[in-house]
Amino acid sequence: MRRASIALAVGFAAVLAAPAAHADVRLGFVDLHRAVNEVADGRAAKAKLKKEYDLRQKELDEKQEEVKQMQSELQARGDAMSDEARHKSQQEMDQKVIEVGRLYQTLQKELAEKEKTALQGIFAKMNAIIQTIAQQEGLTMVFEKSDSTLLYALPSLDLTNELIRRYNSQAAKKKND
Q1: Distance set, CA 83 to CA 76, 78, 117 (Å)
Q2: Highest mean pLDDT out of 4-18, 43-57, 144-158
Q3: Which of the 8 DSSP states describes residue 143?
Q4: Quick one: average pLDDT of 50-78?
Q5: DSSP three-state, residue 28
Q6: Residue-level pLDDT at 23
Q7: Rounded CA gap, 35 and 174, in Å?
Q8: Which tens digit of pLDDT belongs to each residue from 102-115?
């Protein structure tokens, strides 16, 4: 995303530097994060991901609870245990902590991949709609609000509502066909 921001900035600077093109520059921006959260497909994808996350979080919570129980048992019975037994229990608990850490990392990676896959199709459809809007409105460039480090823009340049409207309209048409 950082490279995209730099490329957009360089492209924007090149357009502004060209004297003949300067007068014809028309810009717009969209907030893709907001758009994904507001279109029906995005809400459905997010709900599915949340359900998956909740299931995986429950699994992780159970493993963490096991570690807490092991720790409590070790603290409660530690003084009565032999050094060898206490050492063995500590090693088992340490191993369990490592397993929980690995599970957490694995779950984070899996969920990030699932989110990327789920949203990839939505972003592709949105990109096509953005291109159509830009061509119809005669826009030179369209920025993504959060990824392009857009610090300020006139609200009239925001195409997000139109993107959401057209996306939902296309989705409804396909559903009815």
Answers
A1: 14, 9, 51
A2: 43-57
A3: E
A4: 89
A5: strand
A6: 61
A7: 19
A8: 999 999 999 999 99
Nearest of 30, 23, 21, 52 to residue 155 by alpha carbon: 30
Q: Is 96 exposed, middle or buried (0-12, 13-18, 19+ CB in 10 A)?
A: middle
Query: Residue 5 pLDDT > 80, yes or no?
Result: no
C-alpha 45: how far from chain center: 12
Tokens describing residue 37: 């959260």
Residue 23 is classified by DSSP as T
Among 128-137, 146-155, 165-174, the range with the most confident prediction by mean pLDDT is 128-137
pLDDT band at 42 (very low <50, low <70, confident <90, very high): very high
CA distance 39 to 31: 12
Question: Domain ranges in the chain?
Answer: 2-176
| Better pLDDT: 139 or 23 | 139
Residue 26 neighbours by CB under 8 Å, 6+ apart: 137, 138, 139, 140
How is 78-140 classified by DSSP, letter by letter? GGGS-HHHHHHHHHHHHHHHHHHHHHHHHHHHHHHHHHHHHHHHHHHHHHHHHHHHHHHHT-S
What is the CATH architecture assignment of 2-176? 2-Layer Sandwich (3.30)
